[in-house]
Every structure is written in C-alpha cells, then in structure tokens.
Design goal:
Largest sheet: 10 strands, mixed
Distance between the termini: 39 Å
Shape: globular
CATH topology of the largest domain: TIM Barrel
Number of domains: 2
Number of helices: 13
Structural class: alpha/beta
Bound molecules: pyridoxal-5'-phosphate
Length: 455
C-alpha cells in the first residue's frame, strides 16, 4: 500500500540555507518521527543549466521512471525539457501538466497494445522498437508512428546494465528490422541506444554515435527517407560530486564527427542526472541492539534500526545497486565504531548498511543520506505499514521569483518567503568545507529562463 500524500507547498528561503540545516530545524521541533526528504529545486535548475551549457546540441528528455515526483517533472517541464515515458501512466502524468506530445518520446521497446493506442490518442508519435513483433504490433495499432530503432551499445561497466534486455544488435539484427519496417510501410525516423544506467565508461557514447551513423545510411538505403533523430539515451552520473564535463566532451566530439550541425535532431534521456542530487533523505534511529564481541578484545557491534529501509527509499540498494552513505546529523563527539543500519520492517533482508563505522547513536538521533533522488521514491512501498517518506521541496527566493512565472509551475505552489541562515555547523561525517553542501555546479543564469520562457 502506498499512501499518497497531499502536495507540499514549496518552502521559499530568503538567505543561505542547506538541506542539513533545514533537517535540523525540522527534527528539533520534536514532532517529526517519520522519514522525509528535502528536495532542492535549485539543484535541478543548476543541472539543467549545466547540461545546456556543456551539450547545447543535445536536448534532454527526462526519464520519468527515475523519479516521477510531480514537482520534479513540472520543474523540468518549466525549464523546457522533453520527457522519456515508458508507459501509459507516465504519458498521462506528463501530458496532465500541459506538456505537448511532441516533447515526449515513448521509449519502451516492448509496449503493451493498450499503451500504444493511448499514445496514439494523445498524439505521442515517436516511439522506440527493437524487434519484429513490436513492429507488427505498431503496424496494427499505430501505423502512423514515427519509429526509432533501439540498438544495443553497452558501457564496459554500469550500475544497471540494460543491454541484456533491450536493444537489437546493430550489425546483425538492425538492418533486417529496418527493411521489414519499410516493407510494412512504417516510418523509421531515428536511432537510439542506452549505454546502461550509472555507466562508468564515457567512450561508449562515441561508439554508440558511430554505430548510429552507420545505421542512418542503412535506413536511408532501405527507404526511410526521414531519418532525423538521434537519441543517445541515459546513463549520466547524478551524484552531487559527479560532473558531466568529460562525457560531454566525448559526445560533442562524436557528434561533430558523425552528425555535423544541422543534419539531425539529437536528444538524450537522462534520469539519474537530474534527480539524484536534488533529494536528501533524513531517517531516524528508533531502536538499537548491541551484539557482544565473539572473541575477547573484539569490538561490540551495534545494530541501528531506522524508519526507512529497503522496502522504502533504500530499495535502491537492491534494485539500483546503489552504495548509500550515512552521515550523522549532529556531532556528538563520540568515536566511530562498528555498526550496521537496518530498515523498520520485520524482514531480515531489510538491511541498509551491513557494515559501517558511525559515531555512537542514541534513539531519536537522525541520519542523513544524500543523492537519494534517483530510483528511490517511485519504487518505494509502505510494506509492514511504514510510510514512504514525504518530500519537502525548497527553493531560494531569487529562483522562486523566476520559477513562479514558468508554467506549469504556478505562484500558488510556493509558500511565503522565510528567512534562511539554517546551514548550521557541518556534521562530523559530512565534508568539512562550509560550502561542501553547495552544488558543485554553477548557479543558474537568467539566460536559461529567458530561453525556456520563449519555448
Ligand atoms: C529507456 C531508458 N531511458 C532512460 C533511462 C534513464 O537512465 P539514467 O537514469 O541512467 O539516465 C532508462 C533507465 O532505465 C531507460 O530504461
């Protein structure tokens, strides 16, 4: 059972603030017992700006599956992003906030018939395929679709490899599928690939773009005269200390070599990149158990039980292969000692951190987990009756005054401005710099808003 919360007003901060400062303020009120997120809208805006600055030719189509928080989706829509939807419900969400169907790609190569019919009715014409049966289905339910062939091109290593499930072989399968599409009278307009989510190789984008170039020729030879779309998928890093400088250089160079400016429209489907760093999770220790050392002279191991676990936000540990990092909210001066951190449910699998070193925690102490916005909330369940954390969105006043004017955001979503200066002292396990919490990305420039407002 997933308890749907009412939409939170966006807190507008006048002056400096930080997620941990706000978390401290909230928990110090003494009434907070459930886990919650601070969502920093400024981080999303800064990332959008950084993307545009580094890859001006590549239009980001946010992958909704990564985090379908309506406010995140609305903010990206306000900034001018397009969207990668994988299902009827995701298309419903994105179109319900007023995004035009031309700004959506239905990027699931294995679609249900009813979802194809829905896309057709909504005017979402661009969709991916990687098999013969998908072509037959599209021929039956949406013969006017604009098709994008998804090829396999895997990074040497990725947090979540995708090639095992999707993407036809670019050399052996793709030419045959392109011919079949032509015989069926279907319109193929582009090539896509996804290198794997959380890819740790950057050169792979160069390989993908080169493969796509060859297939553009094959497709044209097969009679697909409207080849115009290159979709380089997702896979971009999203942590607050990650940057896309290096990967952008690889992509820009490959585009220049294989797709000179003006020859095609280039899109990407970043998910993690936009979602991860914007969300900071706070979870409370509600129980603990001490295990005596087995050998004399060994260390006592403490088990801490917190109010969010692998059935909630930390499903990302199981499904997304994330390595989460706990920070204590307040410095209590105790030395680090051996411990483990467990979720609140009765399942033995519900372990967040099996072996970690933290200061001694008391019941009622809070832990902070950063970079928690990707592949966490949409998968979380309230198993055992433990609620999925609520999200408290925050933005600084200067940015709020601009965002309020950009639809689908509206002034009514923003609370009255309150004074900031909630940074407080850095926590002991947090980075020591006073600016350590600030995004490593440059602040959003006004230009990006002007550009978006004109869209
Ligand atoms: C088709 C498709 N596009 C985009 C994404 C988003 O990938 P990432 O979050 O790595 O950017 C995914 C993730 O699974 C995907 O399957």
């Amino acid at each position: 059972m997933k308890v749907v919360e009412e939409e939170q007003l966006i807190t507008v901060m006048d002056g400096p603030w930080s997620p941990t400062g706000l978390i401290r303020e909230i928990v110090d009120s003494g009434t907070q017992e459930d886990p919650f997120y601070i969502m920093d809208l400024g981080e999303v805006v800064a990332r959008y700006h950084r993307w545009k600055e580094l890859m001006p030719r590549v239009e980001p189509f946010y992958a909704v599956k990564c985090n379908d928080d309506k406010l995140l989706v609305s903010t990206l829509a306000a900034l001018g992003a397009g969207f990668d939807c994988a299902s009827k419900v995701e298309i419903e969400l994105v179109t319900s906030i007023g995004v035009a169907p031309e700004r959506i790609i239905f990027a699931n190569p294995a679609k249900m018939a009813s979802h194809i019919r829905y896309a057709s009715a909504m005017g979402v014409d661009v969709m991916t395929f990687d098999s013969e049966t998908e072509l037959m289905k599209i021929k039956q339910f949406m013969p006017h679709a604009q098709l994008v062939i998804r090829i396999r091109c895997d990074a040497a290593a990725a947090q979540c490899p995708l090639g095992i499930k999707f993407g036809c072989d670019p050399l052996t399968e793709a030419p045959r599928l392109l011919k079949l599409a032509a015989v069926l009278g279907l319109d193929v307009v582009g090539v896509s690939f996804h290198v794997g989510s959380g890819a740790s190789e950057t050169a792979v984008y160069g390989r993908g773009i080169s493969l796509a170039r060859a297939l553009f020729r094959t497709a044209r030879d097969a009679g697909h005269v409207r080849m115009q779309l290159l979709d380089i998928g997702g896979g971009f890093p999203g942590g607050r200390h990650d940057d896309i400088q290096e990967v952008s250089e690889v992509i820009n160079a490959a585009l220049e070599e294989h797709f000179p400016i003006g020859s095609v429209r280039v899109i990407a489907e970043p998910g993690r990149y936009f979602a991860a760093a914007a969300y900071t999770l706070a979870a409370m220790v509600h129980a603990k158990r001490e295990i005596a050392p087995i050998e004399s002279g060994g260390e006592t191991h403490t088990m801490y039980f917190i109010n969010d676990g692998v059935y909630g936000s930390f499903n990302c540990v199981l499904y997304d292969h994330q390595h989460v990092k706990a920070e204590t909210l307040n410095d209590n001066g105790t030395p680090l000692s051996e411990c483990s951190v467990w979720g609140p449910t009765c399942d033995g699998l519900d372990c967040v951190l099996p072996n970690v070193r933290l200061p001694t925690l008391a019941i009622g102490d809070w832990l902070v987990f950063r970079d928690m916005g990707a592949y966490t909330l949409p998968v979380a369940s309230a198993f055992n009756g433990f609620p999925v954390p609520t999200v408290r969105p925050v933005v600084d006043a200067r940015l709020a005054s601009i965002l309020k004017e950009l639809r689908p955001l509206t002034a009514s979503q923003f609370a009255a401005t309150r004074s900031g200066a909630t940074s407080g002292p850095p926590s002991p396990t947090a980075p020591a710099s006073p600016h350590a919490e600030a995004s490593p990305l440059p602040p959003p420039a006004r230009a990006v808003f002007v550009e978006c407002a004109l869209k």
